[in-house]
Amino acid sequence: MKVLFNPSRKTAPLIPEWRSRLVLGLLLICLLTLVSRAIYLQALNKDFLQQQGQSRYERVIEQSMQRGNIKDRHGEILAVSAPVKSVWIDPKIVREAQATPEQIRQLSGLLEMSAGDIEERVYSNKRFVYLKRKLSPEKADKIAALNIKGLYFKHEFYRYYPSRELAAHILGFTDVDGRGQEGMELAWQDMLTGEDGKRRVIKDRIGRIVEDVEQIQSPKPGQDVVLSIDSKIQYLAYRELAHAVKAQHAKAGSIVALDVQTGEVLAMANYPAFNPNQRASMNNEVIRNRVLVDTFEPGSTLKPFVVAVAMETGRIRPNTLMETAGGKLKIGRAVIHDVRDKGNLTVSQVIQTSSNVGAAKIALLLPPKTFWEMLNRSGFGTETGIGFPGEASGRLRAYDTWRPIEQATMSYGHGISASLMQLARAYTLFATDGELKPVTLLKRDMPAVGQQVISRETAQSVREMLELAVQPEGTGNNARISGYRIAGKTGTAHKRLKDQKGYAKDRYISSFVGFAPASDPRVIIAVMIDEPSSGNYYGGTVAAPVFSRVMEGALRILNVPFDEPLGNLVISPVPAKLEDKG
User: Fold this and answer.
1) In terms of Cα–Cα distance, which of 133, 136, 151 is closest to 84?
2) Which end of the chain is more exposed for a tag (fewer CB within 10 A), N or C?
3) Prediction pTM value
4) Which H or E element spans position 118?
5) In sequence order, which ranges of 367-417 are alpha helices (DSSP H)?
6) How far is the C-alpha of 121 from the C-alpha of 128, rounded, in Å?
7) Residue 355 CB: number of other CB atoms within 10 A?
8) Residues recognised as catalytic
């Protein structure tokens, strides 16, 4: 019988011994590798794992700081930043969450965007896409109530200007990110902005902040800027200027009021203007601050300066007789005209009646260098230093290029250009005892020290001539105010052709510069009306009445005492023949 199984017989092992030992060795090597790697990552190089973990739940967020306010000299708010929210999405999360058509429809209505615009942003490859900037908190709350996953809010600030058009050209405006673009917003950008803060936070998987970890950088709020502007005088100046531009069917107009002693700008306005709260309607034409960035030929408002330099050099006195009989002066092939034959005039009467012939003869008594130096020291041809972006320096050509006819016409403001601010500042010479005052748009607490340009005696003599110019026999009669002595000068100049030589025959710049009270000047006001087309174009009939109304209100607001009896004011229409077109 065949034996199938013999228990005493030895059988070979299923796995060779050497193989099991090999497997065991490999397992031990893997274990040691893992332990070594763990020790390396958790003890020797632990920063890597920490960074990887933190990148999944920690975020560094910026803390936007509120921009500083801009105030007038009495603390009234002219520009302020209000808290708002901007809505943004993470397109990837929104796509994965699959917002319902009803949610998209409601979101479209609240954002005033088409569903197509929203869909285009949802399918963006970016992880951060704005849907709408600067939403009111109320609207942001309604959007949040839609519970759309992947939709978030960012806290920002919206710049608001309570005075709207009144001070728009002074203040300027900011862009959507809160950076100054024009005016004082741009000039004082660093001071107004401050510094944003940074803090590290922990967020959950849907983006909510669950814990503040640390403050990385402390925020520094923007500082307030206090302007020299008086809001009441600013309102008055803007209102009267707008009324005059409309009434005269003019292209534009500008006005500026200065404090004589401090050089502070009490008011500065242009028309047409713009509303900085509605930035979609802005354009380069309306946002330009014409007072500072536009220049024009000042016309007869320059005549007091040629008289001043001639008196300083001893060539004339107020009662010196100038031969203007005939009303014409021929220089080479050119002829300078007065509107009518005024006979022979004293120097004072040259200013009073605005004689071009008289002014030209006085200018020709001077060496060109002497005349140029007087104009240059009076601030013409150089910036005022007010610190406003884009300020124009005007044009004062080198004296060694002047021809006799050019020197003569420059005496009544042709062949030279200046901004309205330069012109107003230059008149501080006559409103003070010959000092050219530095001007500022920031509030000053004390009188400013200026540069002595002419003597006290000359300044007082010219001031008396400017008083004569606003008397009934003068060209600025419409500038008078009951209860105050006024000093000032009219100007009427043909506009230069932009692309051609010469002047337009039927387009004018009408201006008036003056100050009050003449006995102790407190305020200087300069007015310019560009291209009046209602039939009147003389400075005495177009610009002087604006000066009168604004000056009267300003003196009352500032509580300046009267220096003339009330009730003795007689204003009669200025005949056209009294004022020359220069």
Assistant:
1) 136
2) N
3) 0.83
4) helix 115-122
5) 368-377, 404-410
6) 10
7) 30
8) 300
Residue 440 is given by DSSP the state B
> How many DSSP H helices and E strands does the chain contain?
22, 19
Q: Give the span between the Cα atoms of 71 and 61, in whole angstroms.
A: 31
pLDDT tens digit string along 160-200?
A: 999 999 999 999 998 887 888 899 999 999 898 877 666 66
CB atoms within 10 A of CB 115: 13
Lowest mean pLDDT across 43-52, 86-95, 249-258: 43-52
Instruction: Match 């040259």 to its residue by tokens.
Output: 350
- 212 — pLDDT class (breaks 50, 70, 90): low
CA angle, 135 then 190 then 420, to 5°: 95
CB count within 10 Å of CB 254 equals 27
Distance CA 550, CA 27 (A): 98
Q: Could you tell me how far CA 95 lies from the centroid of its own chain?
A: 45
The answer for residues whose C-beta is within 8 angstroms of residue 28's C-beta and 6 or more apart is: none
Q: Give strand ranges (E) for 92-196.
A: 129-135, 151-160
The residues, any chain, with a CB within 8 Å of residue 336's CB and separated by 6 or more, are 328, 329, 330, 356, 357, 360, 408, 409
Cis? peptide before 272, omega within 30° of 0: yes
Rounded (10°) CA dihedral 110, 116, 117, 119: 90
At 579, the pLDDT band (50, 70, 90 cuts) reads: very low
Residue length of the chain = 582
Query: Is the confidence at residue 213, as pLDDT, over 80?
Result: no
| Region of poorest pLDDT, from 108-117, 405-414, 449-458 | 108-117
Q: How far apart are CA 180 and CA 161, in angstroms?
A: 13
What is residue 579's three-state secondary structure?
A: coil
All structural domains of the chain: 61-226 (3.90.1310.10), 231-276+287-578 (3.40.710.10)
Q: Are strands 252-259 and 265-271 parallel, antiparallel or unpaired?
A: antiparallel
Query: Looking at residues 369-397, what average pLDDT do you find?
Result: 94
In angstroms, the CA 249 to CA 493 distance is 17
Least confident of 84-88, 124-128, 363-367: 124-128
Q: What are phi and psi of 426, to 5 degrees?
A: -60, -30
How many Cα atoms are found within 13 Å in the side-chain-facing hemisphere of 50? 6
Please give the structure tokens belonging to residue 364. Answer: 């020709």
Q: Determine the pLDDT at residue 559.
A: 95
Q: Look-up: residue for tokens 């026999």? A: 473
